[in-house]
Structure formats: C-alpha cells, structure tokens
Amino acid sequence: MQVFNIAKKELKDYFISPIAYIVIALFLLLVGWFFFATFFLVGQANMRNFFALLPAIFSFVIPAVTMRLFSEELHVGSYETLLTLPVTFNDIIIGKFLAGVFFIAALLFSTFAYPLLIGFLGDLDWGPVIGGYLGALLLGGAFTAIGIFSSSLTRNQIIAFIVGTLICLILTLLNNTLFLFPNGIVQAVAWFGASTHFENIAKGIVDSRDILYFVSIMVIGLFGANLAMQGKN
Amino acid sequence: MIHVENLSKYYGEFCAVDQISFDIERGEIVGLLGPNGAGKTTTLRMITGYFRPTSGSIRIKDHSIATEALQIKRLIGYLPESAPLYHNMLVYDYLLYIAGIRGLSQEKSRVRIRELVDLCSLDQIMHKSISELSKGLKQRVGLAHAMMDDPEILVLDEPTSGLDPNQIVEIRDIIKEIGRQKTVILSTHILSEAEATCNRLVIINKGKIVADDTTRALKQRANEEYTLHVSFKEADLAEVEKEISQVNGIRRVRRIETGEKRMLHLKLTCFSDHDIRGEVYAVIRRSDWELREFYRETESLENIFRELTTEV
C-alpha cells in the first residue's frame, strides 16, 4: 500500500511540473528525427531502426528523469520527513522505481503513433514491434533502477545524472567494444552488455535469459540504492 | 513511554551524543535544551528512527528502535528542523498524501485535515504551493503534518525558530493544548520558550546531559535568592534604606539609576526561603512614601543554563 502511495505521489510530481512534458517532447523530437531521417530512404515497413536507437537515447533520457528522485529529497531535506514516516526503505525505493517505470511507459506510449503510421504505409510485422516494446520497457526498467541508484548516492542532481548516464552508456556500448577484451572473457563481458539482450527481444524472440538479465539489473540497481540509504544513517 | 539508555552517536571520530539516558512518561512536555551543536537534533533524529544510534538503546512503548522501527514510526509524529516539506506540492495535496501514508481512509483524512486546518489556521493557504509559503506558515503545515494521525508522541525540532512573536505564541498554545493528552518532546535553544511550554527540561551540552528536572525545580535551583523591585516618588534614599533594611531576610539593597527625576528605584536581593513581601509592605504603609512600583522579579533559567553549558 505504501509503495503505491509513494509511486502515486512521485508520478504526480512528474506531471504537475514541466519536467514530464519537456522530457517527452525532447524524446519524441530526437527519436523522430533520427528514425524518420532514414526511414523513407530505406523504404522498409519495420521499426528495427527505431528500437536500435533506444538504448543510446534511454541512456540519457532515463537518468535525466530519475536524477531527482532521491537527490532532490536529500537536497531539500524532505528525505528526513520521508524516512520518519511509517515506511520502509524498500517501500520508498520500489515506489519511486514504479513511478519511474510508469513514466517510461508513458514515454513509450507516446511513440505508438509510429507503428500505426507504418502499418498504414506498408505491411508491418507486429511480432517484432510488440517484442520491441516489451524489450524497451525492460530496458527502461533496468535503466530506471540504475538512475535511482545513482540518485541515491548524492544530493546533487547533476552528479546523479552524470553517474547514471555513465553506467547506462557503459552497458549500452559494451557490446561494441568487445575487441578490447582478451579472447577468454569476451563471452562473459558480452553477457553484461545491454544491447544484445535488448536486440534479441526486439527481434521478437522472448528468451527467459534476456528477461533474467534485465530483471537482474533492476534488482542490483535497487539493492544498491537500498545499501546507499542504509549507509546514510 | 520512552526509555533511552546509554545512547551514543558518533560521526566518524566526532561524538555528537555521549551516553545519554532518560525516561519520558506519558503526558509530559519535555524540552531538550542546549547551545548550538549540543546534540539536540541528533538525539531527536535517533528517537524518530532517522539515524541509527552508534550504541545504546531506545525503547518506545515496548518497541525497540533497532528491530521495530516501523511500529515506532507509527507512534511518532515528527517535525524536523525548519520543516523540510515537498516544496512543489500544494498544501492540500501534501496533507492528503501524508494522510494516505499514515493509513487514514479517504473520509477520515478529509475530516482530519479539516480539524488540522482549524487547529493550525491553514484555511487561507490550502491551495498554495509549499514553496510559496513563509517560514512561519511552512512551520504550521509541518505541525499539521506531524499531527496527522493524532500520534501518541510528538517530536518537534525547534518548532518556533524563525517565527514572529505572534506566531510563537500561537504555536506554543497549540503545543500546550496537545501536551494535555500526548507526550511532546521539543528541542530549542531559546530559554524563555522552554520555560513557557515545557514541564520538564533536559539540558544537554556537548552530547551529555547536564541537568534533567522539572522546569519549576530547575528554576528554584537557579536562584537561591530572588529580587524584589520597589520604586517610590519623592523619597529619601537614606531614610528608605534605613527603614527597609530592618526587615529580616534582605541581603542587599541597591539603587537602580532610572534617569527619572525624583524617582527612587531599589532592587532588594532576598533569600528565596523567606517571602518578605508582607513585611516590606508593612514598612511602606507606615511611611508616607509614594509607592509607584512593587514587584517580584520572575527568575529566569538563564543563570543555570549558562552555568551548566559554559566551561569554567
């Protein structure tokens, strides 16, 4: 119950301030620009390029959305008020996490116009589209957990944003830097990269291993936030 | 009700609270008094479960803070120093959110918010954003926040800091009103405030308790002697002095220069076990001096506070 009280409040916060609208507008602008710049040249009725953009764009957008979740409370001091209410650390973390995930879902929902439009223009295969959105939500959840973790580390929102972006970018770009690693550990390193797992799901292949990967990132991120909170008192 | 034993808190090497112990019973209004940096806020933060003690134990109504922090947080309403609330929320939304977190049902919270609006006079600001409020108004919203589910224990950290005199009186009255049925702990470094609101004072300095007694007992302890002021018009100093010093129990008679012409203002220092007001009055009645003022000075706690919290 407390989880939902907190989630509701945080979600409301997004939409009563201009942050939500600015972030959504910026996201749509970026995605729309990059996606449609090549879409008509390629001339294929699929959304593969759209989903290929998401990990990189999420690496910036999601930390920007989540940076305030803890940092602002620490800065204003409302963290003390919050912690002396009858809620547990996990209520707070999961509440804020759910609010973040709902926000990302709203963000993704605003791009539904694309598949509708493409389906109208050509013969769209809906399998990969649905897979892509599922993967995007999982990826968004994982990055939200990372953003919450970095926000719980500091009272400075800019630092929270930079740390969050850094971690997300490392996960995103890891698969492109595999040539740097010695042969023996390439496989292991590749498993940590977010993009291959995401691409698998976005192809429409929903494998439990890929889902497990994203869920693990969420659990690790949120657990890290919990440790950071414990370290504070 | 509240049982604190050997409580300590270290920030790294720095010892903020050093082995303090006290008990607080239901219905007490306890003032935690001390100079800046004495450890008042840290103590309150440990009682409310915000900070974990380095060592020692806190038990509140048979709940231990170490294992049942959640139950304890349900019993306590807490107003942190300078009321850090969500500044982007409207006052009404904020109170509604707190009511939800405190587990009040929808109709109950509506009724309760109405009550709190009357109690803390918030009716003019319900639709305002918290960031727009002045410090005093914010403090009142914070008070409403702390009292939301009518908690058994109210913990207030510097509840009147930054308020104007009228607001201070209002908040004091609210605290006294609550203190009739509830347990209140408040911290302050303003002596007159502690004196006016609390029935028990715990004075701490450098993390240690240096005094813990009822306000009245501390006041008595503060002054072994008290002061009587008398002033006359058109009276001769030598004559008055001679007559008055015959009264038993006066230690010193001193003239205070007030600047007014032909006024004689005397300060009589007396032993506190001896009320000499009647005898002094008898002397005055026998004479033909024109009496202008005659009062006993209320003792302040300042003496004892200074004595206890400054290094000699």
What does this protein look like?
The complex is a heterodimer of chains A (233) and B (312). Chain A has 233 residues and is mainly α. Helices cover 82% and strands 0% of the residues of chain A. Chain A contains twelve helices and no strands. The longest helix of chain A is centred in the middle third of the chain and has 28 residues, at 126-153. The two termini of chain A are 25 Å apart. Chain B folds into two domains: 2-221, P-loop containing nucleotide triphosphate hydrolases (Rossmann fold, 3-Layer(aba) Sandwich), CATH 3.40.50; 223-302, Alpha-Beta Plaits, CATH 3.30.70. In chain B, a hairpin with a 2-residue loop joins β4 (55-60) and β5. The longest helix of chain B is centred in the middle third of the chain and has 15 residues, at 165-179. In chain B, α3 (91-101) packs across α4 (106-119). By secondary structure, chain B is of the alpha/beta class. Chain B is elongated and about 75 Å long. Chain B has eleven helices and 14 strands. Chain B has helices at residues 40-47, 69-75, 91-101, 106-119, 135-146, 165-179, 191-197, 215-222, 237-244, 277-286, 302-309, and strands spanning 2-11, 14-24, 29-33, 55-60, 63-64, 76-79, 153-157, 183-188, 200-205, 208-214, 225-233, 250-256, 263-271, 290-296. Classes of the chains: A mainly alpha (233), B alpha/beta (312). The interface between A and B is medium-sized, with 22 and 27 residues.
